[in-house]
């Protein structure tokens, strides 16, 4: 067995316990899954597993910080995002925090589109749990029409190549996102996309995405004119 697997499994368990503070019963749901990690992780190089363990350990520390007694969900998301940025000495537009409300899901990606942070409220709107979202490739979990995916990636690449500022109106439409396992559909709306900076203020090292998702409860729901399903 890969020597890095036990440490990673232990870290995953800690993250589940931390998420459980916000979403009760999360820890109970993971017990049967951690035992199945070995088969999934064995082919992965030990160096990559150690990097993943380090990343998840930091995420665990962030979401495990004491919860202020009067904190509301929107403030929780802002606090976690700020802690993540501070930990890695990253910078974003101040406007991003002004755009966030309790329904806003925040996702942070590297330049090669690897997700390295998501706010806790993501798991309130998604049937997939932390284990699945961490270890299963995104395209095996969700489906959207290819032309929408192309529009999103094309704009993000332009944002990174030309150092575009944060915009709350990115040029891609609301659309339907389908969870492959459950068949559940949500309306995906972008609330903004912008660059993330490290030491160099004019050289993005990644990007941040603000989204909202709304469950589609009926197949007869009227689709907005600018939407693509």
Describe the model:
The chain has 229 residues and is an alpha+beta fold. It has a domain at 101-229: Beta-Lactamase (2-Layer Sandwich). It contains 9 helices and 6 strands, in the order H-H-H-H-H-H-E-E-H-H-E-H-E-E-E. The chain has helices spanning 5-20, 26-34, 37-41, 46-63, 73-88, 95-99, 122-125, 130-135, 146-162; strands at 105-110, 115-118, 142-143, 175-179, 185-197, 204-215. A 6-stranded antiparallel beta sheet has the order 2-1-6-5-4-3, sandwiched between helices. Helix 1 runs parallel beside helix 4 (46-63) and helix 4 packs across helix 5 (73-88). The radius of gyration is 18 Å and the shape is globular. The N and C termini lie far apart (44 Å). The mean pLDDT is 86.
Q: How is this fold's topology laid out?
A:
Layout lengths: L4 H16 L5 H9 L2 H5 L4 H18 L9 H16 L6 H5 L5 E6 L4 E4 L3 H4 L4 H6 L6 E2 L2 H17 L12 E5 L5 E13 L6 E12 L14
Antiparallel strand pairs: 1-2, 1-6, 3-4, 4-5, 5-6
Helix pairs in contact: 1-2, 1-4, 4-5
Observed structural traits:
6 strands; 6-stranded antiparallel beta sheet; 229 residues; 18% strand; alpha+beta; 9 helices; Beta-Lactamase
Strand content: 15-25%
Look at the structure and give the CATH class of the domain at 101-229: Alpha Beta
Taking all residues together, what is the mean pLDDT?
86
How many beta strands in the DSSP annotation?
6
Helix percentage range: 40-55%
Shape: globular
CATH topology of the domain at 101-229: Beta-Lactamase
Q: What is the CATH architecture assignment of the domain at 101-229?
A: 2-Layer Sandwich
Series of H and E elements: HHHHHHEEHHEHEEE
Which blocks of ≥5 consecutive residues have pLDDT under 50? none
How far apart lie the N and C ends? 44 Å
Largest sheet: 6 strands, antiparallel
Radius of gyration: 18 Å
Strand order of the largest sheet: 2-1-6-5-4-3
> What class do helices, strands and sheet pairing give?
alpha+beta
What is the CATH homologous superfamily assignment of the domain at 101-229? PAS domain
Helix segment count? Answer: 9
